[in-house]
Amino acid sequence: MHHERQEKKFWTPSEDLKLTELVATYGARRWNRLAEKMQGRTGKRMCFHFCYSLFVFFRKLKSYSSYYVLEGKGCRIRWLNKLDPRINKTAFTDEEDAKILSAQRELGNQWTKIAKLLHRRTDIAVRNQWRHLNTKKVEEANKRRNH
């Protein structure tokens, strides 16, 4: 069965607002039900959006057929990582940076466990901050080597 690849669609502010309203009405559960109420985020398109994000993140998904299994997860992931008002979206502090680096050395890439050590940070935000910190280290090392 051949599945046509759809154009990647980014979340719009109006979709974020709609999802926030749906979560306020129905709660942060039953994601497939919420997805059905999101125009343009149901069925194939929403599954593609979610799985394409996973593909980029994990670089392991090789089959587009799995895109049809995951309907509500795109809404769930968007809520948990971007829209939930309990999330701390401020810049990371030096203390948090030190905790991230230390915990990653100890636990490896177990981002969920590391995020639990920080106040209201998501695993994705923690992983991205760790990557940012490591990129800075590499750039600084290269600068010292070249000068």
Automatic annotation (TrEMBL):
SUPFAM superfamilies: Homeodomain-like. It comes from the Eukaryota. Keywords: DNA-binding, Nucleus, Repeat, Transcription, Transcription regulation. GO terms for cellular component: nucleus. Residues 3-44, 84-134 form the Myb-like domain. This is Uncharacterized protein. It comes from Arabidopsis lyrata subsp. lyrata (Lyre-leaved rock-cress). Residues 1-44, 84-138 form the HTH myb-type domain. Gene3D superfamilies: Homeodomain-like. GO terms for molecular function: DNA-binding transcription factor activity, RNA polymerase II-specific; RNA polymerase II cis-regulatory region sequence-specific DNA binding. It is found in: Nucleus.
